[in-house]
Design brief:
This protein is an alpha+beta fold and 108 residues long. It has a domain of 71 residues. 31% of the residues lie in helices and 31% in strands. It contains three helices and six strands; from the N terminus they run βαββββαβα. The strands form two sheets. Strands 4-5-1-6 form a four-stranded antiparallel sheet. Strands 2-3 form a two-stranded antiparallel sheet. A hairpin with a 2-residue loop joins strand 2 and strand 3. The chain is globular and about 45 Å long. The N and C termini lie far apart (30 Å). 9% of the residues are buried.
Amino acid sequence: MNVNLELKVRCTPGDLLVIRDKALLLGAESFEILEQIDTYFRTGRGRLKLRSIRSDQVTGLGTFAELETVCEHTDELSAEEELRTVAIALGLDHLTIVAGSYADLGDA
């Protein structure tokens, strides 16, 4: 099973534009806004999330940027370093880190 590492930060729409520009300078090939619906199912070991279409503008919660590193062909330590390096390059290290899922934030 693959492990994915994720960093989620609270930001403004203006921050998203800056992040997009930095990502393009780093060689990102495209930047799209997608709408997404997350559906959660209760399981014996927690929640299973089924994701369809996505948006960083979450109704009632605000604007977020997410960075995800897939650990498919590397060890978790190397993936953590990659996530940190890219987060710094995009300026995410200066924004407020958010733990948990949007569903958890909505319950708070």
